[in-house]
Structure formats: C-alpha cells, structure tokens
Amino acid sequence: EALWLLPGLWQILVGLGLFASLRALPRPVAWGAAWYVVAGLGAIAVAADGHALSPWTMGLPFAGGQALLAIILHLAPGGDVDA
Hints:
By secondary structure, this protein is an all-alpha fold. The chain contains three helices and no strands.
C-alpha cells in the first residue's frame, strides 16, 4: 500500500547522501542535493492524492538532478588532470 512513497523517499535519501558527501565534493553540489530533497518532497505531495506509483515521479526528477550535477561537476575548478 505504501509503494507510491518509494520515488519520493529515494530522491530524499539521494539528496541526504549528497549533503553527507559535501566534504569530498565541490560546494555547488549542495544545489543538486537540495534539488533531490525538494523534488522528493514534491513527488510525495503529488502522489499523495491518488496513492499511485508513477514512473514519471522517479524519471523526471532523476534526469533533472543528474543533469544539474553533471553541469556542476563539469564547471567545478581543479578537476582536470592530464593523463
């Protein structure tokens, strides 16, 4: 009965994991972490009306969050190493 909560809870946990990793990651990653927490809360709020599990509540926030993190990490200084 509580399966509809999984996408939102997953996103919140990813956000909390990113917040916990900020010591090893560039500071702007906090924006990506905040995105996942807010998106997770929003997914739970949207799905609460019908208690329906939708792949869109997982896929769209995940794509947006990964794109945001990719841009942040690409633009972060000090990451280029010549091999």
